Backbone:
């Protein structure tokens, strides 16, 4: 039992059922990868990782968000990477994040640790933010439910991970393709599927 604890922060009622399944085929062992708005741009390839003790953003993603690396707050500690390797963070940055869609979302400021390379992900959302939004993660359904700003429950489902070589950082890139005259659906290489 904890003592000197602040007033209890009530946990909302969260219901998960087959109605949340969407188009997920089981069985699978896929990671939970979502999209969120960060610094007012929609970012793909965000890994939901309950094993991470910090929220991490790649330097490449941060530069695509038009953030200057010279404005990072320096840090003096190392982190343990995948496979046990030591990673030297570049610094920290606090950015506005919107989890969910306009109708059911949570907006908050997240302090990210900035690293040079993040394998196939732009962001790793770890326990600090997941705990703050009271996230309930259902890996079987590739789903995350969370408490919205108004107290209701929102959800974010997994977006299938793209191959690393075709990683798209920010969705607004589609507008650029459309402006250049590309029409119809395209595959990751930018070609129409029928060609």
Residues:
């Amino acid at each position: 039992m904890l003592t000197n604890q602040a007033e209890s922060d009530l946990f909302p009622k969260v219901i998960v059922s087959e109605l949340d399944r969407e188009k997920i085929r089981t069985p699978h062992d896929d990671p939970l990868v979502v999209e969120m708005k960060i610094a007012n741009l929609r970012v793909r390839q965000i890994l939901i990782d309950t094993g991470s003790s910090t929220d991490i953003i790649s330097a490449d993603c941060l530069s695509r968000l038009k953030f200057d690396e010279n404005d990072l707050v320096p840090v003096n500690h190392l982190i343990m990477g995948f496979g046990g390797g030591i990673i030297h963070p570049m610094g920290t940055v606090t950015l506005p994040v919107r989890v969910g869609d306009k109708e059911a979302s949570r907006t908050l400021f997240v302090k990210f640790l900035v690293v040079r390379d993040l394998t196939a992900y732009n962001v790793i959302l770890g326990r600090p933010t997941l705990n703050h939004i009271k996230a309930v993660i259902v890996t079987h359904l590739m789903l995350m439910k969370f408490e919205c700003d108004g107290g209701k429950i929102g959800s974010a489902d997994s977006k299938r991970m793209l191959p690393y070589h075709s990683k798209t950082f920010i969705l607004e890139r589609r507008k650029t393709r459309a402006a250049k005259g590309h029409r119809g659906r395209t595959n990751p290489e930018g070609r129409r599927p029928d060609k």
Q: What stands out?
A: DSSP finds three helices and eleven strands in the chain. The CA atoms of residues 147 and 153 lie 5 Å apart.
